[in-house]
């Protein structure tokens, strides 16, 4: 479908600093780094942004990421509760060695949680397969080949 009603999406942005000729200037003297997201979207906002009617019965959705998220299940449980979604039907399918503890050090944990939560928001009754590559790069293509070649989703 694509993003057809993009004008409805107005993210709340927080200016954390700006780049000047003297270097990076923080918006607050007490701010020590960019270690968190300034905003998030609810399940309903994700559905509205993509003009999707939630469903997903008898559907399988594959989400492909690297490394994974060691706290994915806890993140999903909190997300489901906050957004009034049914519990997720999730399978984590590693492709190669599984290193979820590398996720927080590489940023892939946040990407994995975001991708799975977005898929679950759009298809709350679907079976979601988190296909986790052992690392970024060629391993991600191997994960895509597995999903397509085995007709997993």
Topology:
Layout: E1 17-20, E2 23-26, H1 43-49, E3 60-66, H2 72-83, E4 89-95, H3 103-106, H4 108-122, E5 127-133, H5 138-149
Helix pairs in contact: 1-4, 2-4
Distance between the termini: 17 Å
Helix content: 25-40%
Question: DSSP strand (E) fraction?
Answer: 15-25%
Strand order of the largest sheet: 3-5-4
Low-confidence stretches: 1-7, 30-38
Number of β-strand runs: 5
Quaternary state of the chains? single chain
Q: How would you characterize this protein structure?
A:
- This protein is α/β, with parallel strands linked by helices and 153 residues long.
- 33% of the residues lie in helices and 19% in strands.
- It is built from 5 helices and 5 strands; from the N terminus they run ββαβαβααβα.
- It has helices at residues 43-49, 72-83, 103-106, 108-122, 138-149; strands at residues 17-20, 23-26, 60-66, 89-95, 127-133.
- The strands form 2 sheets. Strands 3-5-4 form a 3-stranded parallel beta sheet, sandwiched between helices.
- α1 packs across α4.
- The relative contact order is 0.19.
What structural keywords apply?
alpha/beta, 3-stranded parallel sheet, two-stranded antiparallel ribbon, disordered N terminus
Could you provide a short overview of the structure?
The protein has helices at residues 43-49, 72-83, 103-106, 108-122, 138-149, and strands spanning 17-20, 23-26, 60-66, 89-95, 127-133. With 153 residues, it is of the alpha/beta class.
